[in-house]
Prior knowledge:
Elements: E1 2-6, H1 17-30, E2 35-42, E3 49-51, E4 56-61, H2 74-86, E5 89-94, H3 97-106, E6 112-116, H4 124-140, E7 143-146, H5 149-154, E8 167-169, H6 186-190, E9 199-203, H7 212-219, E10 225-229, H8 235-244, E11 250-254, H9 258-267, E12 270-273, H10 284-291, E13 296-299, H11 305-308, E14 315-318, H12 323-335, H13 337-355, H14 357-373
Parallel strand pairs: 1-2, 1-5, 2-4, 5-6, 6-7, 7-8, 9-10, 9-12, 10-11, 12-13, 13-14
Antiparallel strand pairs: 3-4
Helix pairs in contact: 1-14, 3-4, 7-12, 10-13, 13-14
Protein name: Rhamnosyl/mannosyltransferase
Pfam families: Glyco_trans_4_4, Glycos_transf_1
Organism: Nitrosomonas eutropha
Amino acid sequence: MKVLSIYRTYFPDPPGGLQEAIRQICIATGKFGVENTIFTLSPDPIPKVITRPEARVIRCRSWAAPASCDLGGIASFRQFSKLAKWADVVHYHFPWPFADLLHLATRPTVPVIMTYHSDIVRQRWLGRVYTPLMHSMLKAMTAVVATSPVYARTSPVLSDSFLRDRVCVIPLGIDERTYPQHSDDGVLLRLGLGIDQPFFLFIGVLRYYKGLHFLIKSAAFVRARVIIAGSGPEGTMLQEQARQLGLENVIFAGQVSEVEKVTLLKRCRALILPSHLRSEAYGMVLVEASMFGKPMVSCEIDTGTSFVNQHGETGFVIPPESPEALAQAMNALLVDNVLADRLGQAARQRYETLFSGSVLGKAYAQLYQEVLDK
């Protein structure tokens, strides 16, 4: 079975959680006999074809990216049309409005499905203009995948009656064999951490919706290091905030390698995801923490984060925008080893049941077959 996946950007361009989600879907379904190709845009699409372990990646030029919506030229329509004829199933990843234009211009004759990763949250003006095109695109889908039952219920788009009979839920997951199997304690030395020194960890792009300014405020009330790993547009502002508050226990690790990330996940006391806006639709880093058997602290924002991290079972789900609640949750995990271990073990069990590579691959392979058989 040949599946064509569509999204605006992909590796080796700068990574993000959605690109990693696509990579994991391709890896997982490959083990069920699916031949995957990914069509994407890039500001520097040379080489145009990249062979990666999970898929063949075919790229056209991104000429502009207003509101993070990459736009291609005539060549992208030609290339997409050619690939859509090759595929048995076309798999779109939402949101990317330009993909809607590709679809409507080409009208693939094979089954088409969409994984709906997130509502359009910040660009409300774009949402209003885009709504008619979005509805036309969604109505053309054979199936629409929500990444969690929470998001299927709370998204105003997914919960609309016109989609109800086409929405199914397949949680995003990770094949742990795709991660480095070894650690490198050198990153602990670089950050001034002792081998047995407890610390809390955030990993991700430093964006506006991640709630990191609340995490920094909470660090003043936590007697442990708080490691912020990643880079992004909010980085300078966050470092200045920590400096002004005189917080010596907040450490900015910058961009870390995959091996360093694995080391930090294995060694941390807990993973903290303080995202306070619905732009955080799922939180793949929570699945990573679950895979390594770590408790988590996240916020209740009515998205998939509260599906991956279950309050009282795998960690704490706290009110958003509350440094006090963040500090209380971190301190509870800091002082109670038994609690931290229990929550971490439950997180690992939930990973094996819901988020493993085999579970992910089987679910999507079955969906591909179902839409082919219709």
